[in-house]
Amino acid sequence: PKPQNAITVAVSSRALFDLVEERRIYEEQGVEKYVEYQQNNENVTLKPGPAFYFVKALEHVNARLLELYPDDEERFDIVLMTNNHAQVGVRLINSINHYGLTIERFCMTGGESPIGYLTAYLTNLYLSADSEKVQEAIEAGIASATMFTANKEVAYSDTQLRVAFDGDAVIFSDESEQIVKEHGLDRFFEHEQLNENKPLAQGPLKGFLEDLGKLQKKFYAKNERLNCPIRTYLVTARSAASSGARVLKTLRSWGLEIDEALFLAGAPKGPILVKIRPHIFFDDQMFHIEGAQKLGTIAAHVPYGVAQKYRKS
């Protein structure tokens, strides 16, 4: 599809594939040995990385869209966005072809930051294993997250893309989270009830949730609601009775549906995510990411909002 019609998801090579050993060679022996190693092993298929099953699920959605809308270009376009050198490209191409992935756009920047290219590619979502690059992309206004591999292997759905989002500082702005951090929970509950009818400002992943919703409606239009290959989840630490109404009314004011909303009232997210088995779970707080990882969920950290300041301090 032409970039202006597509939902462009840019994925780094270390997010798409397991390059832990190759990264170690790069760090310990330098770029020349790294490139040499990659060229010597270009016929050795790389193992899947944390974004691999998410990309596979995006491609399944594309296949379903093409069945229903053969001439429509509004679908996912996966771009491999990496600061690898072009000489490493053959191994990446061989591995992509081995798994039957459709990734036609490559951007290989030879050690330079790829962030400037994200805007040129009209990127809707950027996934990387490099937290500094992700931070740079977030600051440039691009929806981005750092990928973390799950500590256990689980089976993911082959027929339905499942995407789980935290609420505050992910779909929504961090305005409410600031009140929790600075004034405590009682003041937060009071603030949310007073402002129940005032929509929250948007957060960095609101646009991607919107993109998913747009594609879902294309399936609904063909009477495929019950067989839709996209399912979205809100998994929030908020309490439903005390602070849930504002979240649901905000989504309604944006014209967005979310398939399942889980208000956990501070309970751990990991056990709920095990039940959902999302291809990706976005959260702004590392302790939720780590809890999800331990139980086998592939998690993506969104470095946005007040929680980052508290984490650093």
From TrEMBL:
Q: Which GO terms describe its molecular function?
A: 5'-nucleotidase activity; magnesium ion binding; nucleotide binding
InterPro entries the UniProt entry points to: 5-nucleotidase (IPR010394)
Which GO terms of the cellular component aspect does the record hold?
Answer: cytosol
Residue ranges crossing the lipid bilayer per the database entry: none
Q: What is a biological process (GO) this protein takes part in?
A: nucleotide metabolic process
Question: Which sequence ranges form a coiled-coil region, renumbered to this chain?
Answer: none
Could you identify this protein by its name? 5NT1B nucleotidase
Q: What is the lineage of its organism?
A: Eukaryota, Metazoa, Chordata, Craniata, Vertebrata
